[in-house]
UniProtKB/TrEMBL annotation:
This is pre-crRNA processing endonuclease. Keywords: Antiviral defense, Endonuclease, Hydrolase, Nuclease, RNA-binding. GO terms for biological process: defense response to virus; maintenance of CRISPR repeat elements. The gene is cas5c. Its EC number is 3.1.-.-. Belongs to the CRISPR-associated protein Cas5 family. Subtype I-C/Dvulg subfamily. It is an enzyme of class 3 (hydrolase). It comes from the Bacteria. InterPro entries: CRISPR-assoc_prot_Cas5, CRISPR-assoc_prot_Cas5_N, CRISPR-assoc_prot_Cas5d. GO terms for molecular function: endonuclease activity; hydrolase activity; RNA binding. CRISPR (clustered regularly interspaced short palindromic repeat) is an adaptive immune system that provides protection against mobile genetic elements (viruses, transposable elements and conjugative plasmids). CRISPR clusters contain spacers, sequences complementary to antecedent mobile elements, and target invading nucleic acids. CRISPR clusters are transcribed and processed into CRISPR RNA (crRNA). Pfam families: Cas_Cas5d (PF09704).
């Protein structure tokens, strides 16, 4: 793969929320492909490229923990936002966290360590100045220097991810035998932004894509979006 990259990401906590758990947050067992893509995009992304995650190496044992935390119970209604935009002021656009707070349980991962293997593809938004070598150089330079557009996170801004460009061989994992080869069930692959590979905004037409995730030797292989393994 001519323009592949490896990025090692680590953190104290992570929560890759399972969509079937609608009330309390429960994390998938490992980093999901969509979350991995978000981390890569935090380092470097332009409309000219789209990231494709190939493999996720799980280096540390999968450990869960449960916590209770305060969350805001509701969102600001979209209609209210549109009204403020139309009026040209945000005087009435607010929410009172102290009056709209609720305590909810969350099942998180702790002490996580992954290596993301990925490559990027050029999109039809690429201009005459865009080419794969240019974007490869930008990503490698930014990742090596620890630069990012926003702090990468593990599913939530409360759980920041540290990252480093990884150029050597993937180190051996420390997973116990029962975790190294494990069926993880159906996992969210990504969102289908109605055929737009560079799409980042979800609307009613977007469709979630799932695949049957399985760890083999501590490695999660990510199927191509167009393969028969992917379901919507």
């Amino acid at each position: 793969m001519p323009f592949g990259v490896k990025l090692r990401v680590r953190g104290d906590f992570a929560c890759f929320t399972r969509p079937e758990m609608k009330v309390e947050r429960v994390s998938y067992d490992v980093l999901t492909p969509s979350a991995a893509r978000g981390i890569l995009e935090a380092v470097h992304w332009k409309p000219a490229i789209t990231w494709v995650v190939d493999r996720i190496h799980v280096l540390k044992p999968i450990q869960f923990m449960s916590i209770r935390r305060n969350e805001v119970a509701s969102k600001v209604p979209v209609a209210k936002v549109k009204q403020a935009m139309k009026a040209g002021h945000v005087t009435d656009l607010y929410t009172r966290a102290d009056q709209d707070r609720q305590q909810r349980a969350a099942t998180l991962l702790r002490d996580v360590d992954y290596i993301i293997e990925a490559h990027f593809e050029m999109t039809d938004r690429a201009g005459p100045d865009d080419n794969p070598a240019k974007h490869m150089d930008i990503f490698n330079r930014r990742a090596a220097a620890g630069q990012c557009f926003q702090q990468p996170c593990f599913g939530s801004r409360e759980f920041p991810a540290s990252f480093e460009l990884w150029t050597g061989p993937v180190p051996a994992h420390s997973l116990p035998t029962e975790q190294a080869d494990k069926d993880l069930g159906w996992m969210l692959l990504d969102m289908d932004h109605h055929g737009d590979p560079g799409g980042h905004r979800c609307d009613d037409r977007c469709v979630p894509l799932f695949f049957r995730a399985q760890l083999l030797g501590g490695v999660l292989r990510v199927p191509d979006r167009q393969s028969g393994e992917v379901r919507s």
